Amino acid sequence: MAFSPLVDELVESLRCLPGVGQKTAQRMAFHLLERGRSGGSRLASALDQAMSGVRRCDCCQNFSDTEICQICENPERQTGTLCVVESPSDLLAIEQAGDYKAGYFVLMGHLSPIDGVGPEEIGIERLLKRVHEEGIAELILATNPTVEGEATAHYIADRLDGRNILITRLAHGIPVGGELGYVDGFTLTHAFRGRKPLSE
Ligand SMILES: [Zn+2]
């Protein structure tokens, strides 16, 4: 039943969000109209500005308001190392952990031939160019430990075969404070393969 073209349009628009179906979109729209008008206006303005103002950094491909993002532009970041991640949220997680101080390259996805995503779509040529031009000594392939993430990491490593670059992969394993009995077999196998001497 339609009682307002404006409400209908709002509900339809909200459905572009991931995981939001008809019912949830209706609930959100009614909430904003009933009790959240100022929040709704702020959301509309933020959406409008972000959709027209956010671009991809020319250097690392991450979202940025400017041609070069704040991380790439920061003179205090270490050079010579690059960390390759699949998404901006992966980059944020590493930044929040606080230990890594060098640069990034954000693929915005992973290789997925079945979906038509090849090396060109995720910027591998741009990454290789950067590795070459910036004289990168270590490339950390922090793609996800999924089939696609592993395949993407191996593809990049293969493309850099024969160059004098240390290529590393994040260790996968038991969460800190975790118990072996609750860890799945895949994780446990990775943890075994990535074991280190006790002194490290
Ligand atoms: Zn950047």
TrEMBL record:
Top-level lineage group: Bacteria
Residue intervals of every C4-type zinc finger in the record: 57-72
Keyword Lipid metabolism among UniProt keywords: no
SUPFAM superfamilies: Recombination protein RecR
Domain Toprim: 80-175
UniProt keyword terms in alphabetical order: DNA damage, DNA recombination, DNA repair, Metal-binding, Zinc, Zinc-finger
Family: Belongs to the RecR family.
Protein name, entry field: Recombination protein RecR
Species per Swiss-Prot/TrEMBL record: Marinobacter daepoensis
